[in-house]
């Protein structure tokens, strides 16, 4: 029973075969490899009390994306003589149980900087060390090692993108080729069949009556990720001239950007491989855009937020977060549709705490990513990184600029589909006869405005100016009279 050297490859993110150093190491010199994925019921099983279908922590679209990614991984593993062992329970307990049961010598998993995984991994590593099991946990989710960048910066994460770029330089792995394809895997050893399952369906997890109409059009998995990346990079001119924020944020049938974020989030696509392929395009064109606006520059934004998040205790909250300026008290407080929503909720109009918006994004986005989501909410609310609180998106003119016909709104809010374009961004200004003609009576079929943008945004700016000045005062640069003149 289970003789010879055995290793566990613990999949969490990094749901891929290409550029997967943990998997490569698990395969090396092992005659049994157990590829494991643990379903944490809290993350995966339906929460019937939630405000929209999904679990307590993730919307149903992201859960489906994850299941599709697992099925794709399982089918790739099967082609290589192995399979994915799906287990259920609290992940560290399940893992430790597996290590005990299967006579394991080596445990391999991708390093994860998220606090949830740091805590989980510490428990598992502690057991492995007492049991004399070798642990290999390489950094391969990001281009750089956040800890190294922080160390280079004297122990603190850089708080500006330019400072990050200077510290980061070129990734060290970029000089040698990445392992893109493992051809085969050793067989899985004996396992207790009753503890193992195959990848469940949504229904098997308890999701019933999930409407197909509201489902995200993006399919999960490495196969889809690589296909999507190739399609995105096929047009070299497009890649070379990519410039964000230029591009139409209201385009949804053919989005203006790659939509690779959910694949990068779950590691169906290696960010390193993506980066390398972008560099290959750059090497074959005469000129190309540069960070922060270029496509490679977008990936570096990801790195920037991962580094800031890893080096900042309490990064996901206002309190006890040393890089976060308090909205009301201190002051300052900036991708386009997300920008617009985040700005509107926080410092632009409603003056609602960014953590509330973050929570909604965290649950509903399929690319929901701890470092990036928190980092961007901190940015947009002017709580950290960005302080130009005077730059506020207008919910009316922003839409008109990119999408004068209102195609985006008509698609996602069918109640407004027959509203004439003159009124599509301000339907409450349409005469009643027009509202009737469009079968959309404001106050009945569609809500009245929750706020008047002009006055609310002025109010927000004033509050932020006060907070900004108070901060200056605390630093000794502004007098009480200056403060009064702001009121
Ligand atoms: P592309 O423009 O094609 O860029 C390629 C890749 O670069 C992306 O897939 C992504 O991995 C990375 N990237 C691009 N923009 C950013 C950015 N501003 N910060 C960090 N990485 C970036 N992105 C997430 O992946 N997960 C989140 O949870 C998330 N939450 C956000 C919350 C708010 C309030 C805002 C304003 C932005 C958020 N973003 C988040 C960043 C950004 O909006 C998305 O990464 C981007 O829209 C994904 O689309 P794409 O793959 O087509 O991007």
UniProtKB/TrEMBL annotation:
Signal peptide residues are none
Name the PROSITE patterns on file.
PHR_CRY_ALPHA_BETA
Q: Which UniProt keywords apply?
A: FAD, Flavoprotein
GO cellular component terms, A-Z: cytoplasm; nucleus
> How many and how are cofactors bound here?
Binds 1 FAD per subunit.
| SUPFAM superfamilies for this protein | Cryptochrome/photolyase FAD-binding domain, Cryptochrome/photolyase, N-terminal domain
> Could you cite one Gene Ontology molecular function of this protein?
DNA binding
Going by the entry's taxonomy, the superkingdom of the source organism is recorded as Eukaryota
Q: Tell me the Gene Ontology biological-process terms attached to this UniProt entry.
A: circadian regulation of gene expression; entrainment of circadian clock by photoperiod; nucleobase-containing compound metabolic process
Q: Which family does it belong to?
A: Belongs to the DNA photolyase class-1 family.
Protein's recorded name: Cryptochrome/DNA photolyase, FAD-binding domain
User: What is the protein's species of origin?
Assistant: Dillenia turbinata
């Amino acid at each position: 029973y289970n003789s010879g050297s055995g290793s566990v490859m613990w999949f969490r993110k990094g749901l891929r075969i290409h550029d997967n150093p943990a998997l490569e190491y698990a395969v090396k010199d092992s005659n049994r490899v157990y590829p494991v994925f643990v379903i944490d019921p809290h993350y995966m099983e339906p929460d019937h009390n939630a405000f929209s279908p999904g679990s307590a922590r993730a919307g149903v679209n992201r859960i489906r994306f994850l299941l599709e990614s697992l099925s794709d991984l399982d089918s790739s593993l099967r082609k290589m003589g192995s399979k994915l062992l799906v287990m259920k329970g609290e992940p560290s307990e399940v893992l430790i149980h597996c290590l005990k049961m299967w006579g394991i010598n080596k445990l391999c998993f991708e390093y994860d900087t998220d606090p949830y995984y740091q805590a989980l991994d510490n428990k598992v590593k502690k057991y492995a060390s007492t049991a004399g099991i070798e642990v290999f946990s390489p950094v391969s989710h990001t281009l750089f090692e956040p800890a190294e960048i922080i160390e280079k910066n004297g122990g603190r994460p850089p708080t500006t993108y330019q400072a990050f770029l200077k510290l980061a330089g070129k990734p060290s792995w970029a000089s040698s080729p990445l392992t893109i394809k493992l051809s085969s895997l050793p067989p899985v050893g004996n396992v207790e069949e009753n503890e193992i399952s195959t990848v469940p369906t949504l229904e098997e997890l308890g999701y019933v009556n999930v409407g197909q109409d509201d489902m995200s059009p993006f399919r999960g998995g490495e196969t889809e990720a690589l296909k999507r990346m190739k399609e995105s990079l096929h047009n070299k001119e497009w890649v070379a001239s990519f410039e964000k924020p230029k591009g139409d944020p209201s385009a949804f049938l053919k989005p203006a950007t790659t939509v690779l974020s959910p694949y990068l989030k779950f590691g169906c696509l290696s960010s390193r491989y993506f980066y390398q392929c972008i560099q290959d395009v750059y090497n074959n064109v005469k000129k190309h855009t540069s960070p922060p606006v270029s496509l490679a520059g977008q990936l570096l934004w990801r790195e920037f937020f991962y580094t800031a998040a890893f080096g900042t205790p309490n990064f996901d909250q206002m309190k006890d977060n040393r890089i976060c300026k308090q909205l009301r008290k201190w002051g300052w407080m900036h991708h386009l549709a997300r920008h617009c929503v985040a700005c509107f909720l926080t410092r632009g109009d409603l003056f609602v705490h960014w953590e509330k918006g973050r929570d909604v994004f965290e649950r509903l986005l399929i690319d929901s990513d701890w470092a990036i989501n928190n980092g961007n909410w901190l940015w947009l609310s002017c709580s950290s990184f960005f302080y130009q609180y005077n730059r506020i998106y207008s919910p009316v003119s922003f839409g008109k600029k990119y999408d004068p016909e209102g195609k985006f709104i008509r698609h996602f809010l069918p109640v407004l589909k027959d509203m004439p374009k003159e009124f599509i961004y301000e339907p409450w200004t349409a005469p009643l006869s027009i509202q009737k003609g469009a079968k959309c009576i404001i106050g009945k079929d569609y809500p009245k405005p929750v706020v008047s943008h002009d006055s609310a945004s002025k109010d927000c700016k004033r509050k932020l100016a006060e907070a900004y000045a108070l901060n200056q005062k605390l630093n000794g640069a502004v007098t009480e009279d200056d403060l009064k003149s702001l009121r």
